[in-house]
Amino acid sequence: MIISPVFWTVTHLPFTCDLIGFTCLIIVVWWTRKLGAATAVGLISTMINFILRPTATQFVAFLAASVLFDVTTRIVGYKTCFGNLKVSAISLVALSVISGAFAGSIIGPFFMAPGIISQMFGTVFIFISLHAAGGLFGGTLGFILVKAIESRGVFGGQIQK
User: Fold this and answer.
1) What angle do CA 46, 35, 82 make, to 5 degrees?
2) Which tens digits make up the pLDDT trace of 27-43?
3) 54 burial level (CB within 10 Å; 0-12, 13-18, 19+)
4) What phi and psi, each to the nearest 5 degrees, are found at residue 55?
5) pLDDT tens digits for 88-121?
6) Closest CA to 96 of 135, 129, 130
7) For residues 41, 44, 45 and 49, what is the CA-based torsion angle, rounded to 10 degrees?
8) pTM of the model
9) CA-to-CA separations, 159 to 10, 24, 82, 119, in angstroms, rounded
10) Taking CA 126 as the corner, what is the angle to CA 124 and CA 131, rounded to the nearest 5 degrees?
């Protein structure tokens, strides 16, 4: 609520919100391995966002991205997403990039450049790309944090499902 708006004001780049968002989603899905957990995080985050910043309606795109991330991690499989090191890295980062791009495809046309589609195409493409890049950063950080938690035996190895 504090860092992302400041970063946005200074740079007009959405990287920190995606970095924070996808890092949190990966940790939640890793911890719970339950369908609906990432969606719940997106829903709770969106409600808190609207309470604290009612005009930040673009945050509904994070809710949509959370639902997509939730469903796609379930489809790909939790063993795939959190098993083999290389496969885990590729799947988590790819799903974060896809979900980030999905958020950008909502934010670009509906919140940043409403108007004629031909005029929006550039803005839509830019926001898809920027949010996909944010998904890349967040997916990478989330993967690194999960592997660090696992290697340190945090939680006493209880979450080795």
Assistant:
1) 105
2) 999 999 999 999 999 99
3) exposed
4) -85, -10
5) 999 999 999 999 999 998 887 777 765 555 455 6
6) 135
7) 170
8) 0.87
9) 39, 16, 11, 49
10) 95
Query: Which H or E run contains 97?
Result: helix 85-107
Token pair listed for 132: 């996909």
Note the pLDDT of residue 118.
42
Token pair of 13 as six digits: 């780049």
User: How many angstroms separate the CA atoms of 132 and 154, rounded?
Assistant: 30
Write the CA distances from 50 to 3, 43, 112, integer angstroms.
Answer: 17, 11, 18
Rounded Cα distance between 137 and 139, Å, is: 6
